[in-house]
Design a protein that fits this description.
The complex is a heterotrimer of chains A (about 80), B (about 550) and C (about 525). Chain A is mostly helical. Chain A is built from four helices and no strands. The radius of gyration of chain A is 11 Å and the shape is globular. By secondary structure, chain B is α+β, with helices and mostly antiparallel strands. Chain B has three domains: about 30 residues; about 290 residues, Rossmann fold (3-Layer(aba) Sandwich), CATH 3.40.50.1110; about 160 residues, no CATH class. Chain B is built from 18 helices and 17 strands. The longest helix of chain B has 27 residues. In chain C, α6 packs across α7 and α9 crosses α16. In chain C, about 75% of the residues lie in helices and about 0% in strands. The chains are: A mainly alpha (about 80), B alpha+beta (about 550), C mainly alpha (about 525). The interface between A and C is medium-sized, with 17 and 23 residues.
Chain lengths: ~80, ~550, ~525
Amino acid sequence: MDELLKLLSEICPKVDFVKEKKLIDDGILDSFDIISIVNELNEHYDIEIDVDDLEPENFNSVEAMLELIHTLQNE
Amino acid sequence: MSLRIKRAVGAVVFLLLAVSVIGWIQNVVTPKYDWPVHNRRSYKSIRGAFLEPRNSLDAIYLGTSQTFCSISPMDIYNASHIRSYNLASIGQRVPVAYYLLKSILHTQSPRLVVIDASGFFYSEEELLVPGKWEEMIDSLPLSCYREKLDMMKDIARMQNREDDSEYLLSALLPLLRYHSDYHVEEDSFQRLYMNEPYQRKGYVATYDFIAVEEEEVRTARAMLDESDPYADDDDNRKVLEGCIAANEPYLEKLRDLCQAHGAELAFMKVPVCANTRARGYWSANKHALTQAMADRLGVKFLDMCYDDLGLDWQFDAFDGGIHVNHSGARKITARLLDWMQREFGLSSEANAKVDAQWDHQSQIYASEVEYLDLELEHDLLGFLDRVKAGDYTLFTAVSGGIGDYWSDEAQRSLEAVTGTKLDLRDADNGAYIGISSHGHMIEELHDPKSCSTEGRLSDGLQYKVRSKTSDAKKGGTVDIWGTDYAPEGRGIHFVVYDNQLGCVVDAVCFDTSTEQLKAVQETRYQYVMRQKLIEYVHGRM
Amino acid sequence: MNIVSLFYLAFVAVVALAYFITPRRFRWVTLLIASIANYLSYDLKLAVWMLVTSISIYTGGLLIERQEQKYAAQLKAQPDLDRADKRALKKQNERVKRRYAALVAAINIAIWVVFKFADLFITTLNKYLSTGLSLWHLVLPLGISFYTLQAVSYVVDLSRGKCEVQRNYFKLLLWLCFFPQMLQGPICRYRETAPQLYEPHDFDYRRVKFGMQRMLWGYFKKLVIADRVVTISERVFGHSGEYQGLVFVIGALAYTIQIYADFSGGMDIIGGAAEILGVYMPVNFDHPYFSRSISEYWRRWHITLGAWFREYVFYPLSISRGAQKLTAACRKRLGPNMAKMLPTYLAMVLVWILNGIWHGAGWQFVAFGMYQGILIVLGMQFEPVFEWIIAKLKIRTDCFSWRLWQMLRTLALIMGGRIIFKASGLYEALRIGWSILKIHNIWIFTDGTLFKLGLNAWEMFVLFVAVLVLLTVSLLQERGVHIREAIERQNLVFRWALYIGAIATVILLGVYGPSYDAAGFVYAGF
């Protein structure tokens, strides 16, 4: 979790990832942020986030992202 | 009440409210072409026809503005009890006349339909002036929706706009056409759907006399003569043939329509004194072509241009030859009546209820005619007699001195009317002002050079009168409520104020320095007078 | 059918009435019949292409579904497969599904490309290879630019497992040709509007009332504002040779107002009509002129188009294998940060070029797209620089004046884009831009030029007031005020007066209807 938080804060330093639970729905992350995050996650966790996975549910909060990472790692 | 019902009722009420507001807006923006002061009236004349009692009309007239200035159905009724209606309109094209007739035939079954040939010579391009069609389309009542749509289709086809469905729909909803026309006119708030019959039955009585130029009188007469070489450039036989040919299909349709309704169609031509196309001339060429058309269609044709009706183009012309005034119309109407009775045996069927209506309207018409007769009177003695006969206040002012042709008779007449004791021929009375009513002088001034006065009548009327011997052009001024009504010119000026109507009803100047005692009218008083007359008529209807 | 015609109003009324009296089971059929009638009323022959597209996605859908079932059956038949094999099977399943989707998408996009670009292609060919081919002058089928994208979104979503297959061809057809959408969109996802279309909706007084109010607002925007201000923009850009300097700014401003009022007004009419029928369309405009950056602007303007490009072009490209390879290859040359952003930037530029040419067939549209794309890229790259400047000059960023500056700056950049879009060609756009920069003819504001651009003083006044009304309402909405609900809370007399006033305003001040022959009424012509 902390690892993930550190990673995300590097990409988007202005966003409070701990507090916000609606990162996509409220437009806090824009499309570029999402791409950057996805690329970082792919690289760091050695997973393949696909276009299919780009749903708001998967990126609205840190917890959701963590879950996505675990799911993909277990495949 | 349950919520559902409340809402349903609310919705219905709102809908009705919205429709009324939209209807009111449509009423305001649709032009009604009813400006009596400017002598433009299509709407009231046309609408009035549809308010006549069913099947009460014996004859219908169609034609252009020349027609509606020349034929007075009320005069015909007074003389013969024949009830007719003048459905002529400004620049009425033959197709438009056809549709108008078709519309009126829903409610009327005349025995005779007479169409004036003035409109036969519009060329194909001239037929296509959408404004003239739209004017008539909007003047028809909504019950004639079929004719409205047919006319719209015709004019749309001519403009290649047949697939413009909103243009077609605007025949029934003129709002679509006029909503962006942002000027409010004097008739804007009049109701589009009037419910008052029109006592003049479509006739437009004009009140001024402007003489036709002598040259034009001569040339107009020459054009009627086949053998005379004078001709306007536009009086080209070939061109005219093309024009009347363009109108032939609708003339045939007119004849067939009449036949289908048991009526007879006839052509007429009201007299005109003009020599150019722009002024609506008539000529031997046109006569011949119209006669040929009449023969082809099997209808009778009365060309009044060739009749001697006793028309005097000095005093019977309203605007210098194109249209006649009421005194000319009288003569023309009489001729038409005579022809209708003789050629067609036209007569009326007595109908007590309808006749009672017409008699009542005839009385109103008579009081209007009284004013017209006064306005059109160009003989000094006749004028003074008329003033004496009515309830008027007379303002007299002499301009540039009385001149040499002020006769004994005139002096006596003036004394009888105004109660004056002064003789205008005295040198002391070079400048003369007189204000009189009911045979008594209210105020009188005289001076060799000039005099003026200011005052107020018993009913509050404010006046300022001036007379100057030296100023021949505008030596006499009669200022009432701030407006100067006296004409320009030398001689004796009379401004006649009607005590009952409360406005000036005539302003004329007789040039006493010439033998003919030429009369010149000043029509500034028309604005107020016509309004008052409408209110007066309205009150009596 | 033109949405600003009386006929459209009558059509919607009739459809709504029919809808509510149809038994619930068949209500969607009423919508289908209405949509077909609407589509056929446009052009009978071109309707065949709608048929082609709908059949293609229907078939594609069934094929994808069949593949999915095959995969499920395979999994079931081999329960003790190891992880690697399972992954391989899954990959293969996805590959097949994607192929089907790609095929269907390609067919439909090809059709659209031919219709839209045939003439441009032929012209270019003629110019550079001197082939004397004659132009085809193809007329586009109604809504093809919109429904093609919708069709592609269906098959792609299906292949990604993001929506359900539709086995009823007619239901699918309804979703594709739903009549309010055909002229201007919005571009809807299957899962957004399809369920609403198939579910029967009852007459709900409040919903229908809101729908009608929305339509009225749309008519106001379109008829009173858009169709009025178009005169100015047409005049300035159509006769651009006659004008110079600030007149073009006025023209650009006019055009800016025009397309917003026209497009968003159309959306209101469409959305309102759909709302009456119980279908809520996705929002397409969110007060775009209040945006504070170009990126934000494109998230607020023609939202559904932007979303479509994002989901089906931008994301797939940016996180694809190819993108990762590119990043890896450039790492040494451009440094890690730049290397990561490069595929994203390229994807974005491509998206913008596509966006441009989606709007029109011509090089200026490509330029338009690139202009937007470059602005966004530059904006992103220079962000740290701007922040440094702001910090150095101690500029406050949380105050109104700064936000206003951002809005005006964005608006200026947008208007620049508009000029590119509206000018008669690329060269013309450049000339206009140069003229604005060089010539400062401020006197046009006082010497009456403004009233010679096609609208007289009265019309300009009406326009001004109407735009003011639009601005006020937009500001209120931006602050979260729900206009229709706010009106609802007022008294009856006020509400009714407002409705009738609005209707009267649209009727009197709207620019519509057949013209009439004013000259023919002159008293000439005995």
